[in-house]
């Protein structure tokens, strides 16, 4: 019985603040507070006409898409190499590749800026944001794909090779179809990580905005109630992507 | 072997090019100097000196916040993971889904939510005034250390729950039943059977939450006010406003080294404690 209260308390603490933001994105009052006023879609309508939000949305879309594709490629390659490697090598490679996730993002972001601006004399911009996001997304891809490969029947690949398939043919015709759902799951998780990131994007984007740096701009300057609506859109995107990822990778094995 | 190296090449190229080299360069920059807003290669300890003299107290305070957040997250994460594993029955999976939603719930969104809850005209103050506990808004709810710690615990709790839950899933029921059959009380089962078996999960949860909390700057910026500011904000200040990259770099690495020292010390203490108590052998 007491555990019910404990669990209810936790759910309230974890989900409550997030649900509040969603709730108030449909309220007509300018600030979060009760009574919340009538139900309205005004804040969403306002966003639909906001050109600043449009460009931020497209920037986020491009970055998330590029991150999803590229991190899935780099991570899957690594996972394929590591499933056949010695356990000791696997542990150290995984530790090295996970290091960027374990350090404060502030340090990672500043280091990237120092390299591109001072070290290489290059500018910042969306390509740099994408590189930064690949760096933090690829360890997750590796974990997801390796988990799938652990339950993978290597004999099917060996059979294909015995029957004269090249490495590439065996991968494309035998391995890939079997691990495709895990790859889609990994790509969706990478996109969610990219959309959610604020710190790396805000340092490396140079000019312009992604959705999260756009929200930041609004949070710092005015108490603009359309933040609730943007936050809800962002939430629906990241939670939707990760929920879809869970479903996809669970359904087919 | 050659194929393995080729397959590892893309991810390690990103790791080395976008992480290892930049981080090393950043470390080197901490020994450079700044003359009239221009960065010059040098071998100077001025930036490190600035870190220890100007920012020493703030670093200790930042560590304290990180430790508090790490401890709260580990403790609460254990309680929640324990409930999901042993007490929730078939709802255990649902609790994990709730955890994943909070995990992906958006970093800025969460901070913004706490700002709306704790602010002077926020929900909590409205509620307190509504039921007549206070007749004017409590100002200390927001812009304080407490607000920063609450928001950071909320943000990092899912990161603590997941490794602890993974560790608890490996605790077999047979060891628990065996302990019960041999007459162990509920608290003995917890402290001498369950906790020792998920110690590594607890420790990695703590280390991760501690590191990320100590390195955060957005939460204290929006919720900390003057009394709750943390080192990360000043790293940003040195980098952007002061254009003192060496100082910002020395502060980043200084904080990182001190954090790793704390984690290392705790790990050493933990393993020593484990060896001393005979009941804790796993």
UniProtKB/TrEMBL annotation, chain A:
Q: Give the top-rank taxon of the lineage listed in the UniProt record for this protein.
A: Bacteria
Recorded protein name is ABC transporter permease
Upper lineage is: Bacteria, Pseudomonadati, Pseudomonadota, Alphaproteobacteria, Hyphomicrobiales
TrEMBL record, chain B:
Q: Which species?
A: Taklimakanibacter albus
Q: State what protein this is by name.
A: ABC transporter permease
Domain of life according to the entry: Bacteria
